[in-house]
Amino acid sequence: MKKIIDTTLLREMANAIRSLSMDAIEKSNSGHPGLPLGMADVVTVLFSNYLKYNPLYPKWHDRDRFVLSAGHGSMLLYAIAYLTGYKDININQIKKFRQLGSKTAGHPEYGLLDCIETTTGPLGQGLANAVGMALSEKILCKKFGKSIVDHKTWALVGDGCLMEGISQEAISLAGHQKLKKLIVLFDDNGISIDGSTSLTTSDNHIKRFEASNWNTLKVDGHNFSEINNAFKKIENSTKPSLIAFKTIIGFGSPNKSGKSDSHGSPLGKNEIKITKKALGINSKAFSVPENILKLWRKVGKRGELEVKKWNGRLEKNKLKKEFLNQFKKKAYKRKKTTNTFLSNIVKNNINEATRKSSQNSIEFFSRYIDNFLGGSADLTGSNLTKVSSSKSNGKKVNYIYYGVREHLMAAAMNGISLHGGFIAYGGTFLIFSDYCKNSIRLSAIMKQRVIYVFTHDSIGLGEDGPTHQPIEQLEGLRSIPNLLVLRPCDAIETFECWEIAIEENKTPTALILSRQSLPLLRKKVNTNFSRKGAYFIKKNVKSKITFIATGSEVSLAKKVQDILVKKNIMSNLVSMPCVELFEKNTSTYKNKILGNNPRIIIEAASGSGWYKYLRENDLIFSMEKFGESGKAKELFEYFGFEENKIVKKILEKYFK
Q1: What is the pLDDT of residue 24?
Q2: Pick from 514, 470, 458: nearest CA to 490
Q3: Percent above pLDDT 70 for the chain
């Protein structure tokens, strides 16, 4: 199909987007009409003439990715999807915009519609996701060649996306990585919710992007000739590209265009009536002129030949099997070498930090899983996320140096996972999980297998002091639905936690790892006990109390247990590496683990989440204030995490 350059046709096609958007938002009495009205011209040209996609094969591996980072303008995407003929959306879904149970949610939600590449809404996240997608494309293109991997990533952003701090991290890494197939479409309308952007910013975005090694253009977003020429100019760019489209928010509305009034509220029935008249739209609500709908559907079929040619190239490609295998949702099944690996840990009585155990586990799993894409936020030597097979350049890149960009790293890993082809993992300190929280939440919402490696997990990191010592972070992470927070106590549990993280196809994981060395507590290795979430490290039929601990505090609990044995006080010791997995067990199993004896919980972090397991006569040893700077051993003693201090309290409470 030839490119559509007729201005009249393009205007009518764009008006179909505007009309559906106005009607849906009005019926819902909720939404953001400003962006769909303002950017309709730009996306009409993009989807008609430049975007590589096919509604009949929406998950085609070599499709262009279109990310609506400014997710509040969701009706723009839904209208395009309906017009181009995606099979999972019809006019009834447009009419149900923002209604309970509808696929056309207030912001695009991944998994509801095939046209949605990622969940967007928190501004800037989509832009950072797009960086991850473009990184994936670049790496896969190097590995498999342009004949089967050669697609672009387009991200539509607004002023809000570029105000968010994550945007600077995103454009900085993208420019450094020379992601030449990443194109940012900037809806440069100069309006935000509070009014003119002059109230809050004086940024020159063109210079800002150029300073980060981007190609930049500035054009009239309502001039079809300029829009077309802009897309032509960036086709062979050697850098990522920003196209700033000067647009009018709420374009066509006589009373609300160019004003913040059109940003986040329906136009109103009367304003819609006069807007449609001003734009020359004569169709009834939720209807599109037959000739324009046919033209849009024809545009939607434009990619059919591309898919056919691509399939032909793939069939002839000697790397076909390896390419398809790259995208499979791999699960790890234990082999003989697994038992050998774990048995050697026991044989050598490995005493090491769980961050080191994590590195050893990655090293092991990398022999069998060839699509890891790891990285770290400038803490590679501390997080120990890099292994002998890690490569940051060449044809088979599998490691990214993200720099001091935790926001970007977490969001980019979502983009990498969504793009397909990789299991993404990345590391930083647990305290900096706060920087990553929005992205982690989105990983959980989108059910993405993203692995967050958080080291330096407690006051045990020592001298860096309270700014670096996590207290409330564990509880914050555990409060996120569909996230597994895994805090292993030794080398065996660390391996098991990695095993769980790899096997969880629809759940992100946070591995919480120590800086300080921990003794080996586990001897049995044939079963992954961590999968239960909690289990007995040591059980005694004559037990009078039950210890429940996680991570480094399990070995502390073991010391307390050993002292009490000498006083003829028997106890059970439970390791609970994952609260979320424990909660999935039957009530029978949970009651068996928790028992009826007094429970003593030990974790060097905020104790607020543990009270669901505590009764009136139970004890908890936790951190309820910020840490201090000092040696790890001294800090644990100072804050009461010392075996003799704990024994004293137990004796005073239960054995006077």
Answers
A1: 98
A2: 514
A3: 100
Rounded to the nearest angstrom, the gap between the alpha carbon of residue 401 and the centroid of all alpha carbons in its chain is 18
pLDDT tens digit sequence for 250-309: 999 999 999 998 999 999 999 999 999 999 999 999 999 999 999 999 999 999 999 999
Token representation of residue 583 = 């909660």
Cβ atoms within 10 Å of 156's Cβ, excluding its own? 29
Handedness of CA 120, 123, 129, 131 (dihedral sign): positive
pTM of the model: 0.98
Block residue for tokens 């262009």 = 64
Long-range contact pairs involving 388-393 (C-beta distance under 8 Å, separation at least 24)? 388/363, 389/363
In angstroms, rounded to a whole number, what is the distance separating the alpha carbons of residues 233 and 50? 12
Q: Is the pLDDT of residue 110 over 80?
A: yes
Average pLDDT over every residue of 568-587? 98
Model confidence at 656, pLDDT cuts 50, 70, 90, reads confident
E strands in 164-248: 182-188, 191-192, 195-196, 215-220, 241-246
HEC per residue, 91-136: HHHHHCCCCCCCCCCCCCCECCECCCCCCCCCCCHHHHHHHHHHHH
- Mean pLDDT score, 357-386: 97
Contact assessment for residue 359 and residue 410, using Cβ atoms and an 8 Å cutoff:
no
Tell me the C-alpha distance between 244 and 208, whole Å.
12
Partners of 450 in the beta sheet?
Answer: 424
Is it the case that residue 331 has pLDDT exceeding 80? no
Cα distances (angstroms) measured from residue 14 to each of 20, 80, 88, 130, 325: 10, 9, 22, 25, 40
How many Å apart are CA 367 and CA 298, to the nearest integer?
47
pLDDT in tens, 478-511: 999 999 999 999 999 999 999 999 999 999 999 9
Q: What is the mean pLDDT of the chain?
A: 97
Task: List active site positions.
Answer: 406
Kindly state the average pLDDT of the residues 166-183. Answer: 98
Residues contacting 383, CB < 8 A, separation 6+: 355, 376, 427, 428, 429, 453, 455
Nearest to 47 by CA among 79, 21, 23: 79
Q: Are 574 and 592 in contact (CB under 8 A)?
A: no
Domains, the chain, ranges and CATH? Answer: 7-310 (3.40.50.970), 338-518 (3.40.50.970), 532-654 (3.40.50.920)
Q: What is the pLDDT of residues 430-450, one digit of tens each?
A: 999 999 999 999 999 999 999
Closest CA to 410 of 55, 6, 75, 132: 132
Round to whole Å and give the CA distance between 67 and 53.
Answer: 13
Contacts of residue 279, Cβ cutoff 8 Å, sequence gap at least 6: 15, 18, 252
Tokens of 545: 């109390």
| Separation CA 78–CA 85 (nearest Å) | 11
